[in-house]
Amino acid sequence: MSFLDMDDRLLDLAARMDLVYSPLMDVKTFPEHVDITLVEGAVANQDHLRQIATIRERTDILVAFGDCAVTGNVTALRNPLNTAGVVLRRAYGDDEAGSPGRPPRPGGTADVPALLDKVRTIRSCVRVDVYLPGCPPPADVIVDVLSDLIAGKVDGLHNRSRLG
Amino acid sequence: MSVRTLTINGQPVSATEEQTILDVAREHGIDIPTLCHFDGLSEHAGCRLCLVEIAGSPKLHAACVTPAAEGIEVTTHSDRVTAYRRQIVELLLAERNHVCSVCVANRNCELQDLAVAMNLHHVRYEPQDPQLALDASHPRFIMDPNRCVLCTRCVRVCDEIEGAHTWDVMARGRRAMIVSDLNQPWGESPSCTGCGKCVRVCPTGALFEKGATTTVRDPDFLTYLKTAREQKLWIR
User: What is the ipTM of this complex?
Assistant: First the structure.
């Protein structure tokens, strides 16, 4: 939402870049040779773990975008529980095979990836080039940082937004 | 009263006998970060954020408890102390569960402000993710140890200003916890007067009012209270 809060400035940005992958685009595989990737959210399941490795491999500048990507934030609230089992039982019931009236439990089937026992920050999985904290990062900061990145500036980008 | 002269960051300054390095630095607009210090309370010197260098001494000195002695040369922002301060804030953030975005003190928190002032955009240390239960047994206040930095401001204000000494520190090191009376629920504490001073001095979101959506920052309130009490002057 904060990204969309850039309003008409999105059009200026769009003129300076090609959007090659996003949750809003019908692209299934992460493309090769990407200049800049904004990664939102933390690494919570096996699929994220595979994805982040691919993204790192195919990206020049990886931005940890927002508090969840930087610290784990709300997605990591379950980490003190130490195991995914507690969370899964709460959401899907006690029965491994699935409980009546509840959706099938992830992990057992190929459709839904298994949760990691602990939610991991992007940094704990792969190298991060730019940290953009904030919950959410303010739209003005996103514009500034993206503009600088597109212009080839990588230094001094970390300090423009705050945690929380 | 004898006057002492010393230098802070090369700047000559004068101090009275009772003043600490922190007092003198603040008087001259030199900002030394602190967390456990609170105007009107005794010094704890536990957070170690105010560590400074004194020429000729190999160790670092906590500015809040080191007298502004004659002739010393103090450096407040060398690369060495700045690196240590940053490390301290990172360790504090990693030690408990500080989740700014869902914390009642978000944007009103001294720990968060320190992180921002240090341009701290990520923590290098593995989060400890301790499982700590929140105490909501008090009718008006909540104690959330997940946000506690063990600055002991609550312990000191309760003992020194309110005179109740409800709070204290139990255990040591990473197991250390702020407890009320004999480690019993706060709501069952026979000594707590419910004055709320601990809530007012808490630098983070560890102590807050029930139903509150934000915390109050009032760094001068103990000075006000003490002036009122000792001099019968109700002035801000």
Answer: 0.88
